[in-house]
């Protein structure tokens, strides 16, 4: 049985805890590897070594750090196929989806090449008699990233890219379910020129998370996962004096107005609702057609599209629409919620409960489900299902539709499909949700904007990637200086290259 270990001080580090977590092949249900789980002592050792390595890395000028990011981009592109293959084998998503996972992380690394500009401070000349005032952005020191299973490349890259480019060292604690890609990324960073110890990958469970939250050297923690854990990490990290940005669950609504292009809306709902088996925090899981006529026409278009979805392992080719969910427990939770929807009175118009894939009977596959006439009191509406299940809530008016999205406890993403600019503008202005799509189903911002939800989808003041990431991973120092005026003789006549 293959064993997966940690990455500490630029090399594989075999754990000593004797505790392991199984890594499954979701398509077959078989255990394909054992993951070593760290002890608190091993986590603390990794932090100590990272703190030592960070001193020199933090003193390296930003342009040289950016050159490491530039080479890292080249190496990721070189190994894209290899990364996607490993990612798919552990997570279950299709190869095109796995490449998209890597690509959206890669775009943040490309943005981080501009770190020298983002780290510039401000300057005021002659703030007083002979006095100049300026600010500097400096790294925090050692920071940590705790990342989820559903994007094993993208989210680690979102965390480590800005943190390292800003001059920090990072402790990365990836998901135990699909840990190999983060380790591969650490190896590529070493090849790109990152000094040993600046990025430590420590695998673990709640014991490792708590060790991160309680370690006094770690100055900031970034997390993506479920809302209860996001809130727990935010509260414990904050209580220990750390910065924290913690992103949780979602229940993303798409409002479909009567004037919308319904074929376009139906295509968008199928891709956004069932892609990656629904295991996305930006998945559309609630369709809100406005008016009975709109709802009937939308359901009529959705049913054949959903029934034609091809579900299978990533090895079945690039025409597979989505693969298995990540674990048997995840599958059972999805089916439990589907049954609750039936029991509570929702109309199951596409029933995927009996889905069975010949040759993969032990895999964690879940057929697509479509509910109609869902109401806000039902569990399938209130709960993040994180599976291939789309719920339709019929609204009688635009105001009722927008009220549904605004009153839900989650506020990660939302979308509206309409041809009316006034409606779209009103929606974007009023909605109390962090990321908004107008005729765009999954409004994930590009790398040079910031990503983050509102309400119980996000805890903390600063978002992921974009300028907010560099604000999060640095602190500002302001200097007030007075120097006696005068001219010194002598000078240099050669243009000096960057040291």
From TrEMBL:
The keyword NAD applies. It comes from Paracoccus fontiphilus. InterPro entries: Ald_DH/histidinol_DH, Ald_DH_C, Ald_DH_CS_CYS, Ald_DH_N, Aldehyde_DH_dom, MeMal-semiAld_DH. PANTHER family: MALONATE-SEMIALDEHYDE DEHYDROGENASE (PTHR43866). This is methylmalonate-semialdehyde dehydrogenase (CoA acylating). It comes from the Bacteria. The keyword Glycosyltransferase does not apply. Signal peptide: none annotated. CDD domains: ALDH_F6_MMSDH. Keywords: NAD, Oxidoreductase. Coiled coil: none annotated. Its EC number is 1.2.1.27.
């Amino acid at each position: 049985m293959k064993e997966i270990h940690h990455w500490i001080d630029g090399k594989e580090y075999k754990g000593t805890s004797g505790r392991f977590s199984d890594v499954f092949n979701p398509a077959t249900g078989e255990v394909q590897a054992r993951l070593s789980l760290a002890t608190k002592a091993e986590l603390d050792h990794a932090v100590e070594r990272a703190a030592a390595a960070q001193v020199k890395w933090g003193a390296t000028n930003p342009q040289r750090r950016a050159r490491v990011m530039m080479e890292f981009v080249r190496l990721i592109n070189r190994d894209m196929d290899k990364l996607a293959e490993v990612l798919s084998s552990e997570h279950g998503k299709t190869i095109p989806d796995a490449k998209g996972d890597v690509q959206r992380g890669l775009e943040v690394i490309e943005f981080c090449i501009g770190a020298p500009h983002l780290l510039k401070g401000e300057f005021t000349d002659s703030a007083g008699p002979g006095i100049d005032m300026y600010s500097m952005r400096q790294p925090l020191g050692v920071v940590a990233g705790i990342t989820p299973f559903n994007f094993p490349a993208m989210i680690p890259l979102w965390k480590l890219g800005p943190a390292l480019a800003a001059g920090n060292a990072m402790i990365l604690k990836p998901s135990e379910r699909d840990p190999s890609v983060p380790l591969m990324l650490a190896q590529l960073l070493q090849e790109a020129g990152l000094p040993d110890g600046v990025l430590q990958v420590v695998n673990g469970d709640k014991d490792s998370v708590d060790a991160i939250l309680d370690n006094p050297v770690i100055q900031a923690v970034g997390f993506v996962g479920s809302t209860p854990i996001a809130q727990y990490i935010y509260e414990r990290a904050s209580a220990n004096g750390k910065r924290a940005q913690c992103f949780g669950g979602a229940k993303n609504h798409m409002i479909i107005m009567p004037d919308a292009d319904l074929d376009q809306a139906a295509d968008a709902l199928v891709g956004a609702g069932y892609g990656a088996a629904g295991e996305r925090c930006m998945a559309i899981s609630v369709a809100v057609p406005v008016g009975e006529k709109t709802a009937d026409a939308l359901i009529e278009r959705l049913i054949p599209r959903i029934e034609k979805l091809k579900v299978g392992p990533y090895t079945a080719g690039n025409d597979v629409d989505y693969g298995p969910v990540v674990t048997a427990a995840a599958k059972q939770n999805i089916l439990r919620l589907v049954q609750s929807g039936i029991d509570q009175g929702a109309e199951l118009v596409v029933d995927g409960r009996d889905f069975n894939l010949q040759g993969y009977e032990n895999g964690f596959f879940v057929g697509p489900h479509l509910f109609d006439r869902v109401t806000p009191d039902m569990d399938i509406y209130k709960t993040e299902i994180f599976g291939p299940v789309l719920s339709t809530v019929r609204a009688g008016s635009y105001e009722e539709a927008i009220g549904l999205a605004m009153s839900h406890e989650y506020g990660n993403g939302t979308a509206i499909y309409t041809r009316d600019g006034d409606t779209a503008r009103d929606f974007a202005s009023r909605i109390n949700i962090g990321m908004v799509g107008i005729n765009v189903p999954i409004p994930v911002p590009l790398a040079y904007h910031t990503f983050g939800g509102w309400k119980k989808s996000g805890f903390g003041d600063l978002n992921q990637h974009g300028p907010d990431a560099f604000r999060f991973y640095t602190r500002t120092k302001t200097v007030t200086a007075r120097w006696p005026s005068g001219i010194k003789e002598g000078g240099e006549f050669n243009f000096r290259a960057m040291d």
